Amino acid sequence: MGRSLNHERYDDAFIRGILDTVKTVAVVGASQGDDKPSMFVVKYLSDRGYRVFPINPGRAGQFVAGVKAYAKLADVSEPIDMVDVFRRSDAVPEVLDEVLALSPRPRVFWMQLGVKNEEAALRAEAAGMTVVMNRCPKIEYGRLSREIGWVGVNTRTLSSKKPQRLGAGVQRLQLGPRVKSPR
Amino acid sequence: MDKPNSGGERTPGFSTLSVHAGAQPDPTTGARATPIYQTTSFVFDDVEHAAQLFGLQTFGNIYTRIGNPTCNVLEERVAALEGGTAALSVASGHAAQVNVFHLLMTPGDEFVAAKKLYGGSINQFNHSFKSFGWNVRWADPDDLSTFEKAITPKTKLIFIESIANPGGIVTDIEAIAKIAKKANIPLVVDNTLATPYLCRPFEFGADIIVHSATKFLGGHGNSIGGLLVDGGKFNWAGDDRYPMISKPRPEYQGIVMAETFGNFAFAIAARTLTLRDLGAALSPFNAFLIITGIETLPLRMQKHCENALAVAKFLAGHNAVKWVSYAGLPSDASYKLAQKYTPKGAGAVLTFGLKGGFEAGVKLVSDVQLFSHLANIGDTRSLIIHPASTTHRQLNDEQKVAAGAGPDVVRLSVGIEDIEDLIADLDQGLAT
User: Fold this and answer.
1) What is the average pLDDT across B374-390?
2) Same domain, yes or no: B281 and B307
């Protein structure tokens, strides 16, 4: 078995490339309860203009964080650009099986914070998908828009450009400008 | 799609981060310098937005006790300079310490602290923390086995200073970090005297850093402030000993900080639980002054270290001086540790003892004309004090000597004036 691409560190340009171009996101393992991180991600992304589909068999047809939920990935009638997985690392392969059966195939297979599966990453990449593991799209969007600076987090970005507000919210920002490497 | 990691993305240097990290032109006005958001509160878009903010579901500002955009710039600036994941600004260095301990300790717990510390910290640990039921066990940084021996099943953290006040002694951070790791407890390092310019404790295994930004970070003696910085490496998840970070919080509909906020959970808990309830918020105006000071941190620290070394050499060669404690002198006990932990310089703070003892020290402090006699360190101005009668006064004689603040000790915080003027001032002050 070959090795997948390095998933320890991601260039900001790589993550920005995903978050800039993806329009629809299915969140698999979107749990019950306002206290669950998956709810935070559904709400945060949908407030920033992404169409989000929470996938949870127990809440099919209900509204979850203001967004309609589905029992399984195949029930979503629109094309899904990215699948965001909130499951245990060892449950990831079965999620990938469902993802690979979708048509059109999603471009991005994203595993949440603490979720890592090299074997699934390899299979997804072999199928032409872009893979991210052990990251949260809410935190990454927060970093690259620099919104997360409002809670004192190190965004690891520098910019001398004025941030652009997103829509009508007083505290919603667009993803930052692309920073070209001098190299 | 771009490759995941092309190796082409650069990390900015320390001076660039000192000027820029955390800051961006203001979105509304384009203002380049960080605006001073001298406001108590912030409007919401609507009820939904307010609910999300209070529920920690979106990032933003509600009320300056919990967060303020000017203070946020300072937080990200210091987190970036230390190489941490996040930071929280508070009213003072002491408040930063209270905040850290409040998150990690419960009544009846113990902690191990190096006995070579700022007198204010020693008092805080021996008195106020004791009244909370947080019990200190002192250890000697010159004998690392005392740290291991002091650890019990009740020990929740270890606390040290990277460069210690008042003698400028350097602590073996990496060795103590190993002891902490073996006991599976976090290492807290007060990095005030070194600043991240001279020492970055996370690189040696520290878990949390505290700062009195009042000192070298702000650098100009005008603003009291403090920070705690999250190193992002300690594994809080599922650890019942630290329930504020690992357990469902009733204050926030049952969320678990460690699950929701990954490697910056400690800093978020510090803000949303401790700062919120204990209230030691930093003034936005103070934050602005400290941010401005940090922009010149590298330049100032270089000059501080150059001047301090020259002063230490002058004193060491002076016939009225019995001994000098400064890790930049090759003969000093901390010299080797300084080469490892603070290779760019040994800082600005040093102590010395006069042959004439206590009386000679008192005379010097009153005879200098350029050095300011006051209780502070880390100003552009050179400062002088006699710790035994001031900063370390409330310790007993044994504790004073153990802390490096015996009766004959004079402490200097060397500023950034012309070195000839500083030496001339000390020279005339030492003349009998």
Assistant:
1) 93
2) no
- Are B288 and B313 in a shared domain? no
Structure tokens at B73: 């710039």
Mark yes or no for CB contact B253/A160 under 8 Å: no
Whether this model's ipTM surpasses 0.85 comes out as yes
Instruction: Point out which residues pair with B351 in neighbouring strands.
Output: B325, B411
3-state SS assignment for residue B276: helix
CB contact under 8 A, B2 and A7: no
pLDDT the model gives residue A183: 39
Q: Residue A167: what pLDDT?
A: 79
Look up the CATH number of the domain holding residue B424: 3.90.1150.10
Q: Quick one: pLDDT at residue A174?
A: 85
pLDDT recorded at residue A165: 85
Question: The domain containing residue B222 runs over which residues?
Answer: 14-294
- In this prediction, residue A181 carries a pLDDT of 43
> What pTM does this model have?
0.94
Contact call for A183 and B8, based on CB within 8 A: yes
Answer yes or no: is pLDDT of B358 > 90.
no
Q: How many domains does chain A have?
A: 1
* pLDDT tens for each residue of B304-320: 999 999 999 999 999 99
Q: Is residue B6 part of a domain?
A: no
Task: State the DSSP H helix or E strand holding residue B321, giving kind and residue range, or none if neither.
Answer: strand B321-325
Contact (Cβ atoms closer than 8 angstroms) between residue B79 and residue B87: yes
Q: Compute φ and ψ for B164, nearest 5 degrees.
A: -95, 145
DSSP annotation of B173: H
Identify whether residues B192 and B98 lie together within a single domain: yes
Torsion sign (Cα): B191, B195, B196, B198: negative
Q: Residues of A numbered 137-156 whose beta carbons fall under 8 angstroms of chain B's beta carbons: which are they?
A: 139, 142, 146-156
- Tell me the C-alpha distance between B246 and B232, whole Å: 14
Tell me which residue range forms the domain holding A114.
Answer: 12-137
Q: Within 10 Å of residue B107's Cβ, how many Cβ atoms?
A: 8
pLDDT on residue A63: 87
Q: CA-to-CA distance for B427 and B432, rounded, in angstroms? A: 10
Higher pLDDT, A65 or B90: B90
**A65 or B62, greater pLDDT:** B62
Nearest to B79 by CA among B236, B245, B234, B196: B196
If you measure CA to CA, which chain A residue comes closest to B237?
A: A114
Task: Please indicate, yes or no, if residue B3 is contained in any of the structural domains.
Answer: no
pLDDT greater than 50 at residue A134:
yes
Average pLDDT value for chain B:
95
Partner-chain residue, chosen from A44, A113, A136, that has the shortest CB–CB distance to B57: A44
CA Rg, chain B, in Å?
A: 22
Confidence of residue A32 (pLDDT cuts 50, 70, 90): low
Q: What residue ranges in B342-399 does DSSP mark as E strands?
A: 349-354, 372-373, 383-385
**DSSP per position, B28-54:** TT--SSPP----SB---SSHHHHHHHH
Between the alpha carbon of residue B261 and those of residues A42, A151, A168, the distances in Å are: 15, 11, 27
